[in-house]
Design brief:
This protein has 17 helices and 13 strands. The chain is of the alpha/beta class. It has a six-stranded parallel β-sheet, with helices on both faces. Strands 9-10-11 form a three-stranded antiparallel β-sheet, with helices on one face. Helix 1 packs across helix 7 and helix 7 crosses helix 8.
C-alpha cells in the first residue's frame, strides 16, 4: 500500500489514504466511482490508451485549453498514466500493478478482462487481497450480460424513463446520466464494504455492479405499487403517486415545487394559501382522500397558485413551515450561497485549461474529511512518476517502455 494520499499533504487525515486504486475505467460510471475514492485520499491511478485516452476526452464542446469539460468534471484528484494493453509488455506492466494494488476498477464489457488474461479468477491468484470491481450494463451474469451498457438505454430498460415526463407525453430520461452515476456510487459502496470485509478475512473479493440492477433498486415504492396491485405505474409529470399535493405548480411568473409530506403540513399549506376550508373538505381531509381526488384538488390549487408570484409563495409557505422551492437553473444552483457555503463548487488550476471549477465532495466527515486538491490529469501526465512509485522502475526501464510505445 502506498502512503501517498491522492492530492493534499502527506499528513492529510483522509480515510482512504494509503490505498492504491488501479483505475481501468472510462466514460462515466467507473470514473465517478474512482473520483469518490480519490476524494477520500486513495491514490487513484487512471490508466488510459496512449494517444487517445478516455473516450470522454473527446466529448464536447465545450473544451477549455483543448481539454474536455466532461472529462474534467469526473477525474479530479487522480494521477494519470498511459499504457497500451494490446502490447505484450503493456500487459506485463498491468500484471505488476495488479500485484501491488489494493483495488482495481474496470468497466469493460464482460469478458474482455478474461480475454486479456486478467479476469477475476486469474487476478485472484496473482493478488488474493485485491478488491476487483467490475461495472457493466447488466452485470457479469444472466442472459444479457454481454450487451453494452449505455446510460440512455439503461434508463429506458430500467423503468425510469417510463416514469419520467408528462402524463400524455413521451417518456424522458433524467437530465443527468443518473444510471451511470448511481452505478458509480454503488460501486464505491461495494468497494468500501469489500475493504471492511478484508480487514476481517485478509482476502479480497469481486464486486459485480450492473447498471440495470441499480435502476431496479431505485424503483422502490414504484415497484411496490406494481407488487401490490399488479398494475404498472405510469408517468405523472411532477406529481407523486402516493402523496398529494407533492408536485409542481405554475405561479404568476414561473414554477414552484410544493411538498406536503404529512397532514400537519397540508393544514399549514391551506392556512398559508387562504384556503382554510379546503382541509375540511371530505375529499381532501386525509392524504388517502387527496390521492383519490387528486385531479379535483389540483384544479383548485392550480388556480390559486396562479394568483401570486413564486417569490410571494416562497415567502408565505416557508414562513408557515411548508416545504417549497423554485426550479433553479444549473447556473443558479452553482451560484447559490448555500451551495458555496458547503464547498460544493471548488476552483482548481489546470495545467492546460487554466482556472477551472468542479463540483465538491458531498460526503462531509467531521474528523477525516475528503477534499478536492488536484485537477484532472492531462493524458499521461504522471506516467513516469507512477512507474517509479508503484513499481520501482528505473529511468532506463521507463525509457525502453517509451521506445516500444508501451506507455
Amino acid at each position: 500500500m502506498s502512503d501517498r494520499p491522492a492530492g493534499g499533504e502527506a499528513n492529510s487525515p483522509r480515510p482512504l489514504a494509503g490505498l492504491r486504486i488501479l483505475d481501468l475505467t472510462r466514460v462515466l460510471a467507473g470514473p465517478y466511482c474512482t473520483m469518490m475514492l480519490a476524494d477520500m485520499g486513495a491514490d487513484v491511478v487512471k490508466v488510459e490508451r496512449p494517444g487517445a485516452g478516455d473516450d470522454t476526452r473527446g466529448y464536447g464542446p465545450p473544451f477549455l485549453g483543448g481539454e474536455s469539460t466532461y472529462f474534467m468534471s469526473i477525474n479530479r484528484n487522480k494521477r494519470g498514466m498511459t499504457l497500451d494493453l494490446k502490447h505484450e509488455r503493456g500487459l506485463t506492466v498491468l500484471r505488476q500493478m495488479l500485484e501491488t494494488a489494493d483495488v482495481v476498477v474496470e468497466n469493460f464489457r464482460p469478458g474482455l478482462m478474461d480475454r486479456l488474461g486478467y479476469g477475476y479468477e486469474a487476478v485472484r491468484e496473482i493478488n488474493p487481497k485485491l478488491i476487483y470491481c467490475s461495472i457493466s450494463g447488466y452485470g457479469g451474469t444472466g442472459p444479457d450480460a454481454a450487451l453494452p451498457g449505455y446510460d440512455l438505454i439503461i434508463q429506458g430498460e430500467g423503468g425510469i424513463a417510463s416514469l419520467t415526463g408528462d402524463e400524455d407525453g413521451q417518456p424522458f430520461k433524467v437530465g443527468t446520466s443518473q444510471a451511470d452515476i448511481v452505478a458509480g456510487m454503488m460501486a464505491c459502496q461495494g468497494i468500501l464494504l469489500a475493504l471492511i470485509a478484508r480487514e476481517r478475512t485478509g482476502l479480497g473479493q469481486k464486486v459485480d455492479i450492473g447498471m440495470l440492477d441499480c435502476q431496479v433498486a431505485l424503483l422502490t415504492y414504484q415497484a411496490g405499487i406494481y407488487f401490490a396491485t399488479g398494475g404498472s405505474p405510469t408517468r405523472m409529470g411532477n406529481r407523486h403517486p402516493s402523496i398529494v399535493p407533492y408536485e409542481t405548480f405554475e405561479c404568476r411568473d414561473g414554477y414552484l415545487n410544493v411538498a406536503c409530506g404529512n397532514e400537519a403540513i397540508w393544514r399549514r399549506f391551506c392556512d398559508a394559501a387562504d384556503l382554510e376550508g379546503l382541509a375540511e373538505d371530505p375529499r381532501f381531509r386525509t392524504n388517502a382522500d387527496r390521492v383519490k381526488y387528486a385531479d379535483d384538488l389540483r384544479a383548485v390549487l392550480g388556480a390559486r397558485m396562479l394568483e401570486q408570484t413564486t417569490a410571494e409563495w416562497i415567502e408565505a409557505l416557508q414562513a408557515a413551515g411548508v416545504p417549497a422551492g423554485r426550479i433553479d437553473s444549473v447556473r443558479e444552483v452553482c451560484e447559490r450561497p448555500q451551495v458555496l457555503a458547503r464547498d460544493m463548487v471548488v476552483e482548481l488550476e489546470h495545467p492546460r485549461a487554466g482556472p477551472i471549477r468542479v463540483t465538491g465532495v458531498p460526503v462531509k466527515l467531521s474528523e477525516t474529511p475528503g477534499a478536492v486538491d488536484t485537477p484532472p490529469p492531462v493524458l499521461g501526465q504522471h506516467t513516469d512518476e507512477i512507474l517509479v512509485d508503484w513499481l520501482g522502475k528505473s529511468g532506463a526501464e521507463i525509457a525502453e517502455l517509451r521506445r516500444q510505445d508501451v506507455v
